[in-house]
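[#protein-structures] MJ: dropping Peptidase C45 hydrolase domain-containing protein here for a structure pass
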Amino acid sequence: MAQGTVLCEREIGRRRAVPVLYLQGSHYDVGFDIGRNFASIIKSFLSSYQNLRDFEKEYKTDTGRDAYDKTLANMKKRFPYYIKEIQGVADGANVPFHQLFLLQMDDIIGTINDNHLPRNDTGGCSSLAIKTPKSTVLGHNEDAFGETLNHFYIMSAHIIPTPEDKELGAIEEKFASLCYAGHLPGYTMGYNEYGLVFSINTLSPLMLKPGNTPRTFITRALLASKSYADAERILRDEGLGIGNGFSLNMIWMNKTGEQEIYNAEVAPDLKADRSIVNILKYTDEPLIHTNIYQRISIKEVIGPIIDSSTCRLKIIDSHTPPHDQNDVKDILSDTTGTDFQVFQEKKDSVIKTIATGIFELEKMTWSIFINKPNSSEPVAILPIRFSMLDKSVQ
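AK: finished. structure tokens for Peptidase C45 hydrolase domain-containing protein:
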């Protein structure tokens, strides 16, 4: 059945469709409505995503089940309202909760029985941000496994926590995020209404920390951040710390309209109960990030994710430094690489660019392209709203 689903998806090709759902309610309610409205996409992804078969295989081992149980217990203590969100998706789509939680654990569960061995990883994502006299622009190629093509949606949510969730630390949230089917929002690109525009790059440290916070929970929590300082606190995750790794590209706007660009690299701290976090502020030079650590000294995996990142960085650096959003589109549309491309569209490629996002803060728009952004029209243009700037912590 799974194989047939994959073949079907390959036959329908790259669909120029961006499903967007506007939601309001508690964490559980918003999750339930995501699951109910996107049940077919979620079920199709769960049946066709080969990595999930690997995760389930590890889940059935004693070591894997122990890591799953420990991680779930820690997340129920730390982010109980996000667990309710996942449960809502599971109930709404009528799919098993454990499959959705395995998606959040990702490489933490996938490597549980060979965490100490050299690992050959695959992945992608390219981000580029610039500050011009007129505006600030963030461009992002969302690269993912081929099964993710046509298996994503955008949720624009207003979270109104229940009194019980408020007591547990939940706050009111307004955000929009592209989501892989069945995943928590936040681990791709989007914005929150406190003044944050963001994109994510997967990073792959060799040594992971099973039981610690999966990166998708950290990035979900970032959607509630009210300031740069708040975001930094969330990234550090004092008392536990991240279990795997990622890079966060941020533009923060304050009440006066001032805009700042940052990149944060996040990695597991094997000696302490917190994340290793390195943040760099960009002023004159463009922010460029792919899927390798540029500042944290840490042993990474080997394989295509590293080779592809090195190749894409080299291609991006070969371009004239970008000065406006058209330059950003040109760079993110580059397909000149032989083995790896910035815009990954080769039919035989395991990793594909499933969408490109261009955030323009002068226009306050988020444009989503399915094909190369320098030669196609955006399939969707969403407004960027910073309605909660007056409640943000400056």
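MJ: nice. The first helix runs from residue 2 to 12.
AK: one more thing. The two ends are 52 Å apart (CA to CA).
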